[in-house]
Batch of 4 targets.
Target 1
Amino acid sequence: MNEAETRAEYIDHALAAAGWGVVEGSRIRREYPITLGRIEGHGKHGKALTADYVLEYRNTKLAVVEAKAWDKPLTEGVGQAKDYAGKLAVRFTYASNGQGIYGIDMETAVEGEIATFPMPEELTIRWWKVKSRPVNAMKKRISTRLSRFGNGNLRGYKSSWRKLISAKRRWCFVRIKPMPY
């Protein structure tokens, strides 16, 4: 059984059973283009990189699924799946040969065989658990720098806020002066 048959008969059904493409807001993007391919000259490109599946929920790419043929080992597509996840900046990636599923969390480096694909809501919750930590920490640091002025309004110290944001995101704030004519 080749890869296309494995995808059609096993992986598509496993994704649908988990709710992908069934739950409102979830979407399975098949043959998702990643790059056009290496430029070889004279306006020609090499073979384009395409992920077998990209799982989206509420317009956010959450996972990449790499499919392999039924007779291939389960971990055959792990390297390729990790490469695609890195190029697409996606946290979760999966490799499957139709007989099993190998899951990888690119951010926490947890990987191993899993029984089923996670549901869209479950994957979103796992995605937000780590994603929201820096944002909440930044909000807490900014709120501690707030002070109450005589009129009762809360106002932040702009210089502290700018330093914090520039350190966090490595942005450079430049004051632009109008040009004299």
Target 2
Amino acid sequence: MPSSTKIPLGTLGDINVGYQLRQAVEIEPQGEHPLIQLGNVQDGYIEMKNLNRMTLKGKLDKAGRPLSAVRTYHYVHTGDILLRSRGATYGSAKVVEESDKAIALSPLFILRLQSPLVVDDYLVWFINRSETQAVLRSKQGGSYIPSVSLESFKELEIILPPRKVQEQIVEIDQLARHEYELTQRLQKARDTFITASLEKLLNS
């Protein structure tokens, strides 16, 4: 079987900084752009429902200057991978559902894969694994609000086994997640049943 290779993340696709708003989000229910913010992105999951919306055209920043234009790469599309550069984790998540004119805000980074060498779900798994998170934490800068730079993400070494192996890893990980979810549901149902039974005995 072919051996694994190590490739810098930046060679697998284009990585860009999310749109830099430079002002507080003004929530506008009918705003032009759904905004994907740091809090919407968890490790392996993006909350795309009920995103805050805002129209950027014609708005001014804190210094009274017009907001910068939205670039093509700010728009989020199905298959893009969003990277957290700040916060409790430096995890990633793949966009699985597209929202019209949705843009990702800084400090999120937007990765658009261009390489046939990598399976997108494998890459998300690899970035979110504890060993990779430890590497990213070793690269963080800043004392008040630690963060990882765009350059550090681009230089992050990704271990790439053959695509078939990547697909196997993804399949096993998804099965494990599904099993965990089922176990949690069963435990919750069990706890509810026990609590109800004890209350019934107490009041009998």
Target 3
Amino acid sequence: MGTKNIIIDTDIGPDCDDVGALAMLNIYANQGLCRILGVSHCTSNPYGAGTIDVINRYYGRPDVAIGTYYGEGFLTDEVCMRYNRFITTHFPNRYQSEQPQEAVGMYRSILAAQPDGSVEVIGIGPMNNLSNLLNSGSDRFSNLDGVKADDDGRGFPMFLQSGGRQGGTDRQWQNRGYGGIQCGLRYPGGAERGRKLADAQSLPWL
């Protein structure tokens, strides 16, 4: 099967599943099954990136790239900080003294540096970061916009979304609303590809 290059996109904070998923991914990396190229945090919660860094450090990965969503007011209530505020403020992490990279920039810098079609993305939260990536324009990392890069095979060959099937219409496949934000994730290739992507529940080795 080979070693997979992975970016994981998470809303770590309100629920514990993201902690478990990130821990499992680190364990698989320790077993040589994957390489964690980056972790993207998809809410406005200021403690998400720090919590991600704490977990990665626990497994011996203090230098994994971490990006975050900088939109305002998305999943920032007390429920969404029930554990990540404590973890970020009580355990060593780089974001006690600096700010994380913006998520789209993290994605584009990683994807531009990897061979075409060699990175797989796992989404375990709202899809706003991936929507922003696919709708991004050219920048210092690549002269391709997000959709063109994916259509050319330079993006990610597989996207796995833990949310799974959301409904039966094309609009539901292509525009997943969450917490008042319309994510508007565009699946290149149309609704049929969107259905296949949304139906994917796990990697073969999960």
Target 4
Amino acid sequence: MPSSSPPPVVERRRRPRPLVATVASVDVTAVLVAHDGAAWLPDVLAALASSTVWPRHLICVDTGSTDDSVTLLRAAYREVLQLPRGTGFGAAVAAGLAQAGAAGWVWLLHDDCAVEPDTLALLLAEATRSPSAAVLGPKVRDWTDPRVLVEVGLTTDGAGHRETGLDRREYDQGQHDAVRDVLAVGTAAALVRRDVWDALGGLDAALPVFRDDLDLGWRVNAAGHRVLVVPPARVRHVRAATTGRRQTEAAPGRVTATDRRHAVFLLLAHAGLLRFTTLLPRLLVVTLVRTLVLLLTRQLPAAADELRAYAAVVGHPVMLLQARKAQAASRTVPARSLRPLFASRAGRREPGPVRSGTGCPGVRRRGPARSAPWGTRGPTVRRRPTTCRPAAGAPFAGCCCSPACW
């Protein structure tokens, strides 16, 4: 008789699912520029690979690295565009974009800046909510200590000091988390509308490093668009060039000298005709006073930097006139309307108004915008502590933390 016992149960193991998650592709061209960044690229590439959305095009550009940067980039993305060692950041981005297809946005990436998984998604989400925004930047925190804020938007004052509105080693406690209009954002992980990038010619080749971010933001605002800082989107940044952890052949010499020269160039390039005629002699007086103070405090290299910065800009009038001509051609907003975006002489500026309308008060904008009333102003930023003193070699009355802060 046939057995009535049930047949043996055969255990079938389920096939493991692939570990690669499906990531949505967005209308973005990302350009990652490397220059001797092998020390940070493993973390940067790992952070980029964890992004919740993925750029349609990602172009890797190396500017003559002598370390393992090219090897690391090729292991991750195979193709790397290699350029001469003296290529500046703006020229490298332009060369990378020339190799990519069309996309609505440009995402600027540094080899020493690690994004978070939702950085790009949050920037794009804010761009959708604010269609008049042409440049959006994240909150920037310190590489080794993410509690420390580095930048939450940028501005400058009448003397060319680079202002972040932050205290030295200020901790991130959410006090600057309002999305707001600013004069500029840093280029690290900045998102730029491609049509605006093309119309303005991208980053100025006259500023291969330092102040190129302020120049771009200034030109975008003057052209009638908006620049927003989006603090929910966060990155960690080494600031290797600013802090002197690497040298850039695109701007040889002392970091303080290059930064001050570009600061003077920026002020003169963006000044109106009437202001230009008064600013030129005023900057000369400021330069002489600062040089004298530096000499009295025995900071001889810094004193020489002051004189050379002014002489280098005034001694090359053709480059300055070309920048002024390009800036004037794209300007659609009067200079006085942008004053709320600048730092005052008395101290650091307060953050701009919370995003709930079309821009800062008094700034006439072009393009689509919402008509909702303006919200309240953000929290007041404390002034620099009275105990802060310039470090050795730093410019007089500058920030003690890094050369790029003055």
